[in-house]
Amino acid sequence: MTQANPDDITLDPKSDDEVVAWLPVAMREYEESRLEAGDSADAADTARAESERRFFPDGRLIDGHQLFTIRLAGEDVGWFWLGPWNGTGVEDWWIYDIRVYDEFQRRGIARIVMQRADGIAREGGAKSLGLNAFAYNVPAITLYESLGYLTASLHMRKDL
User: Staple 88 to which of 40, 92, 94, 154, CB 3.0 to 4.6 Å?
Assistant: First the structure.
């Protein structure tokens, strides 16, 4: 598979209308990820609803956060969301979501977007950039580690 040319990748801010269309899709994927990580259906639904309430209280993304459509040569290939970590000012930023559609994965797109995230966060006043990865998502964890992210905590569970 051919690697993406970084010059062909753009991050286009989502309009309010695009956010409205994107939100149920992204929240459904978030809920599904929670289920795959071991949450009960109720817990996954509660986490999704809380995320929507916290970050999209009126259907629009809260101030200070940035949500982009990832494009490859003009084609929509995913999304990217980052912003200040809630309640800690602007020095600590967080990558809340990155998604490259399956048919575009393994082409270096996420790596390029993640590298650009550093500059976006710095421009916003960030001194650090964090993220969460579900343990089952080994390819993402491998990418993040290769970009210098270190494990800050580890949540473990077992079924009884």
Answer: 92
